[in-house]
């Protein structure tokens, strides 16, 4: 199992971690199989989305904030909106790896989604060989 550490700087943000994932693949000579990425937190998520236009990240965060405003929730920590956003986006993704390369679309990137930052976060990765 591998770890990717992420330091976030805002309460809500999407951080492109594609380069960290590519580095993990190359440094560990992962060839053919599936790379499973899992976020170890209940107020953060991971997704694959467009990485060509930075406005997509802003639009997604704005849409999530509209869908899940931080209203008066019963959860005493005051971050129930973050828990709900995480549930909507999800806490894991699978990436096919072929000949040491992730199989992603031309415009796709891997994003860590922070909904209760800033914090130090962890994504664990497990490679399953073909």
Automatic annotation (TrEMBL):
Lineage: Bacteria, Fusobacteriati, Fusobacteriota, Fusobacteriia, Fusobacteriales
Alphabetical list of InterPro entries matching this protein: UPF0047_YjbQ-like (IPR001602), YjbQ-like_sf (IPR035917)
Name of this protein: Secondary thiamine-phosphate synthase enzyme
Top-level taxonomic group: Bacteria
Matches recorded under PROSITE patterns: UPF0047
Family stated for the protein in its record: Belongs to the UPF0047 family.
Organism, scientific name: Hypnocyclicus thermotrophus
